[in-house]
Design brief:
Length: 150
């Protein structure tokens, strides 16, 4: 039920292949995982190249929704360009939340990167703070693996 409603809300008719119930996103040695101890209904949406497949906008790789809690994760599996990853998460948040209309506190942006150059660390913090100030969206970054337990 949750998946069908999410597809309808996101105007994703004909894109059922972008939606599944997986709790994991993996790419080139980077991984995001939801440890679903509470047995909630989870819907994973492959965003980049599936739900959004044009080359005009920035978008993150995956969107996860824990249906009963209306908790959402925007996940970008990235090399080392976390500044670009922040932009991708923000653009996806704007795109999705225009349709879902959930409070920003229901969202978490997560960047799983292979590594971040020291010089980029301060820039990331600045972008993260700006994002929270302007959109009330929290963004976190992890190296190689990230897990959230619900």
């Amino acid at each position: 039920m949750c998946r069908k409603q999410l597809m309808k809300t996101l105007d994703a008719g004909g894109k059922a292949g972008c939606f599944d119930d997986s709790t994991v996103a993996k790419e080139k040695g980077k991984e995001f995982r939801i440890n679903n101890k509470s047995q909630k209904t989870i819907c994973r949406v492959h965003i980049d190249g599936c739900l959004i497949y044009d080359n005009r906008g920035k978008r993150c790789d995956y969107f996860f929704k824990i249906c009963e809690m209306e908790q959402c994760f925007l996940v970008e599996l990235k090399g080392s360009d976390v500044n670009e990853a922040v932009k991708q998460i923000i653009h996806t948040f704007d795109f999705i939340n225009r349709k879902l209309k959930l409070p920003p506190k229901n969202f978490e942006g997560i960047i799983v990167s292979s590594g971040i150059p020291r010089a980029a660390e301060q820039k990331f913090r600045t972008l993260k703070e700006k994002c929270f100030k302007e959109k009330k969206l929290k963004i976190y970054k992890e190296s190689r693996k990230c897990q959230r337990t619900i």
